[in-house]
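dumping this here so i dont lose it
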């Protein structure tokens, strides 16, 4: 089934109903345009649902580089699928090229954005990025580490601002070879530590 683009009118109607449900007057001046604004915000924040982010990794060149490639500190924002509140932070994406085949550096960040702009949980986001790299680049190893703050843990519920959630997906040599694993984790670790 082809995914349909966002039905903005239906989304705006739903937001209007939400405003009524929380006891607001959706017709007061300040809220008049809010339903459509929120609908468009969700369209933007879920734009990754309508693309295949892995396709970005079809841009490849052979430059004979066979050691670690790491793009660190890729900022992203996503939407927690339990509360539809943002979670945001940094992704670090590394791989060990096979046969000197590399992809464009920006493509790694585009893959992060593509999977992030969906209702997500952090663990799935981490795995999907690693899966895409494995599938498209067949690297000797790859590592994805994500650190993020979840607004659902900050502005509501347990209310722990500053709590940082770290998830990793390590594959191939970056999982199984202790030296390679130590090397990439050291490269990912912030200089000077926390
Ligand atoms: N593993 C995981 N949990 C998440 C993520 N985002 C949000 N959550 C958690 O999902 C859980 C949902 O728990 P529920 O008990 O169903 O929901 P809730 O009553 O709103 O829970 P509280 O947040 O504890 O108030 C919460 O513990 C959230 O912290 C995520 O990316 N990964
Ligand atoms: Zn949540």
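and the seq i came up w/
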């Amino acid at each position: 089934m082809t995914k349909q683009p966002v039905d903005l009118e239906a989304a705006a109607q739903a937001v209007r109903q939400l405003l009524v449900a929380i006891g607001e007057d959706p017709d007061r001046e300040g809220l008049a345009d809010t339903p459509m604004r929120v609908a468009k915000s969700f369209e933007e924040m879920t734009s990754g649902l309508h693309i295949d982010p892995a396709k970005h990794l079809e841009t490849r060149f052979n430059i004979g580089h066979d050691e670690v490639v790491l793009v660190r500190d890729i900022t992203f924002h996503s939407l927690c699928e339990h509360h539809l509140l943002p979670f945001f932070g940094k992704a670090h994406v590394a791989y060990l090229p096979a046969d000197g085949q590399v992809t464009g550096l920006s493509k790694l960040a585009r893959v992060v954005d593509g999977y992030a702009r969906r209702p997500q949980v952090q663990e799935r986001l981490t795995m999907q990025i690693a899966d895409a790299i494995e599938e498209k680049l067949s690297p000797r190893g790859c590592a994805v580490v994500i650190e993020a703050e979840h607004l659902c843990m900050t502005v509501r519920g347990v209310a722990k601002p500053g709590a940082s959630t770290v998830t990793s997906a390590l594959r191939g040599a970056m999982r199984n070879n202790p030296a390679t694993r130590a090397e990439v984790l050291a490269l990912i670790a912030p200089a000077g530590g926390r």
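Residues 54-188 form a domain with the GTP Cyclohydrolase I, domain 2 fold (CATH 3.30.1130.10).
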